[in-house]
Amino acid sequence: MNSTRETAVRLVEQVCNGGAYTNLLLSKYLRENNLTDLDRRFLTELVYGTVKAWGTLDWYLAKFVNQPLNKIEPLVLSDLRVAVFQILYLEKVPASAAVNEAVELAKKLANPGAAKLVNGVLRNFLRQQKEIEFPQNEAERIALTLWHPKDLVKKWLKYYGREETIALCNFNNSSAPLCLRVNTLKTTKEQLGVELEKLGVEFVFSKLAKDGIVCKKIPNLGMMLDKLAGQFYIQDESSMLVAELLAPQPGQKILDLCAAPGGKTTHITQIMNNQGSILACDIHSHKLPLIENNAQGLGISIIETKLHDATELNEEFIDSFDGVLVDAPCSGLGVLRRRAEARWKKTRDVIKVFPPLQSSILNNGAKYVKENGKLVYSTCTIEQSENHYVVAKFLEEHPNFKLVSERQLLPQRDGVDGFYMALLRRKGQGIGRKRISN
Question: Worst-scoring range by mean pLDDT, 160-164, 369-373, 402-406, 427-431?
Fold first, then answer.
């Protein structure tokens, strides 16, 4: 039996039923296990592909299982999902092999009865596969064909039209490249490029982010992390633009209200040449060491971490910072290619939770900015109710702030992760303690 396939089934089960994050779970497994390059690529393809196609795979399976899918033992259901994914989308895997391996694995994971179920479902699927047709409704057809929830597709059809919606779905289904942010405190982009070439890494310098490098091929990530430790930080291209927009100066006092794991915080520090002070806050105590460890690894000394709920006003912060970053919690609809499971968990009700939360944090962040100081609001979503409309509402309620610039990156147009960022500046006299007390 293929042990790589068994691993894929177990990892998929942890994502679909255990709430694990695909990228973190798979990365951890690959770091801790010495797989051949072939097995590494096959495992990655199976896990990411099955999770991304989750809803479509279940649509097929529901036609051949005589009970609700959630009644099937989780590992057995994951076994079925991985098998159907292979049959439908991996031409290099013979359908008969996918079925046989799934049946044998069911015996190991569960019992003979489960194996009989798997065998019956998959054999029937193979016989009737070509007779199955997707619905004629445009949103449903695109959703099933391109592995997205129907509600999201309907919304995007309304916003962007058919062509761009299809392009967006295809982008989300593509493999995301590894992007590096050069640590300019220790090296330059050109110098790091030379070192990467020595390790056989194929890359291009980012056209979007000043300090970005986009890797096309990485022979050995572990070796790269070991030999070039501290010279770069793994960060998406779009994400790098946020610190650039804040553009802090050496010696300034900066606040990052939602900082973990510290990517933007450490980038801000680089731009400040490690001179000044940065207070990095997060609501989760277990995430503060992530910021501290990342800062230490990059040779950064000016970051102080603090446990803080950004929705609660901190009187000590008022009028205290030259710049404040609100990288707000969001639906993450701009980074679905990197977060395989997220598309299936971002329901309409979940998305509605974010705008009030984001407004609350932004309103507090505004109170911490000094006169003539800067406030940056950013998200990794393309949902305008979390982006432009949050900022528009803020400006209506805060006439002492002006919008300097805003930018929305869309995957289907810009070819990078979807990101929104707005730069706001506080005007002259504003929202000091006296006004707040009133």
Answer: 427-431
- How far is it, in rounded angstroms, from Cα 90 to Cα 175? 15
Letter string b/e over residues 353-365, b meaning 16 or more CB atoms within 10 A of that residue's CB: ebbebbbebbbbb
Task: Report helix, strand or coil for 67.
Answer: coil
pTM of the predicted protein model: 0.92
For 124, residues 6+ apart whose C-beta sits below 8 A from its C-beta are 64
**Cα-Cα end-to-end distance for the chain:** 71
| Residue from 16, 169, 179, 380 carrying the catalytic annotation | 380
CA-wise closest residue to 106 among 4, 8, 9 = 9
Distance of CA 413 to CAs 60, 171, 417, Å?
Answer: 32, 10, 10
Q: Say whether pLDDT at 346 is over 70.
A: yes
- DSSP per-residue string spanning 174-225: SPPPEEEEE-TTT--HHHHHHHHHHTT-EEEE-SS-TTEEEEEE-S-HHHHH
pLDDT tens, 62-78? 999 999 999 999 999 99
pLDDT at 37: 82
Burial of 132 by CB count in 10 Å (0-12 exposed, 13-18 middle, 19+ buried)? exposed
Is pLDDT at 437 greater than 50 in this prediction? no
Q: For residue 330, indicate whether it is catalytic.
A: no
Which residue do the tokens 């439908």 mark? 88
Of 121, 113, 122, the residue nearest 86 (C-alpha): 122
Output the CA torsion sign for 380, 383, 386, 387: positive
As a whole-number percent, the residues of the chain with pLDDT over 90 amount to 89
